[in-house]
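Obj: model holo form, ligand = adenosine monophosphate.
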Amino acid sequence: MNRIFSGIQPTGNLHLGNYLGAIKNWVELQHQFESIYCVVDLHAITVPQDPVLLRTSTIEVTASLLAAGIDPKQAIIFNQSRVPQHAELAWIFNCVARLGWLNRMTQFKEKAGKNRENASVGLFAYPALMAADILAYKATHVPVGEDQKQHLELTRDIAGAFNAMVDEEFFPLPEPQILGQATRVMSLRDGSSKMSKSDQSDYSRINLNDDADTISQKIRKAKTDPDPLPETMEGLNDRPEARNLVTIYAALADCSSQEVLTEFAGKGFGVFKPALVDVAVEKLAPVTSAMRQYMDDQSYVLSVLDEGAERAHAIARPIMQDIRERLGFLGHSLG
Ligand code: AMP
Ligand code: TRP
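Output (holo structure tokens):
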């Protein structure tokens, strides 16, 4: 049986990278598989969070998922901290994963920065919690952007090590699904760094709640070069900013990058950028306006999270009980 699990952090605005790299795929997959989508508030607190903002962000991210087209009758949507099995299994995985495995994680190195001694233990153990998210449901497929590939490999290592420990094929080895044209959307200001919530400059990203004027301004100001667009993608090899905009266009318009180049070859950014603004506004405006409506009806959003948490808990609880028995823990968990 196939089961999808994926997660997203409630830390500020969602942006075009989240949308094209993850959420757009989640919307498509919900019709093909049993799907569980989680707003990962336990992951958010691996770095300091303001409780008021964390609550607001959790509601906003849920509203964005609904606005993007995730159907809560079909998929399960919930926030991670409500289902205690995530934290419980994460602890067990902290005891399965080796320090050497976690030491290789590039995202920790990026997020901890120079002052590594001062990073939280939770930030270091973040990937073990992510493995717990996925495996608490015995999920088989995990749709994510490219930046999560290494964490997925670690999840497979943890699942394999646990299986060896209990001498049983207990967990499936989950497959990453890195789908679509834009698995790594880059900053609009710098084609060598990824579009991210934490970038200082708001001009580096398109947020899902930006209005049409803001989208237009950000695209017009996006860094490019003076050359016209080439006929093939090879011609963009040394032009990361141009390549990024072409990829974004293709992903939004649901066509291939080659088709974009066939249409725009020989034209400069004076022509291409306004066309990109049109397609971005056309595709994102309905999401933005639906998101506003959901934010005006927060009690509905909260009810979606309530129901999702119950459905998620009903799946994770018996799996966790099986794990407890394999390990020799006495009795049932009260969670
Ligand atoms: P996060 O915002 O870090 O919780 O990421 C949520 C999802 O969005 C994950 O599947 C990420 O891989 C994906 N994602 C985040 N940033 C980007 C980006 N710049 N390009 C493509 N996917 C991204
Ligand atoms: N670490 C992921 C990110 O930052 C979010 C996440 C947490 C996740 N748990 C997950 C993604 C489980 C997929 C599956 O993008």
